[in-house]
Amino acid sequence: MTTTIAVGMLGLGTVGSGVVMRLTQAARKIEQTQGLRLRLAAVAVHHLNAPRAVTLPIGTRLTDSIEAVVTDPKIQLVIEVMGTLKTAERAIVTALQHGKSVITANKDLMATAGEQLTALAQRQHCDLFYEASVAGGIPILRTLTDSYATDQVTAVAGIINGTANYILSAMTAGKTYSQALAAAQRAGYAEADPTNDVGGLDTTYKLMILSQFAFGQQLTIDQLAPQGITQLTAEACQQAAQAGWQVKLLAQAQRFGDQLACRVAPVAVPQTTALSQVKGVQNGVAVTSQAIGDSLYTGPGAGSTATANSVLNDVIVAAQQLVRQTCGRAFNQNHADLTVTRLADLSQRYLIFTDSSVLKLQRAANEGDFSLQRHTADCYETSVLTTAQLRQLAVDLASDGRELTALPIAFSTVTTTTAIKTTQPVHVAI
Ligand SMILES: NC(=O)C1=CN([C@@H]2O[C@H](COP(=O)(O)OP(=O)(O)OC[C@H]3O[C@@H](n4cnc5c(N)ncnc54)[C@H](OP(=O)(O)O)[C@@H]3O)[C@@H](O)[C@H]2O)C=CC1
Ligand SMILES: N[C@@H](CC=O)C(=O)O
Question: What is the model's pTM?
Answer without folding.
Answer: 0.95
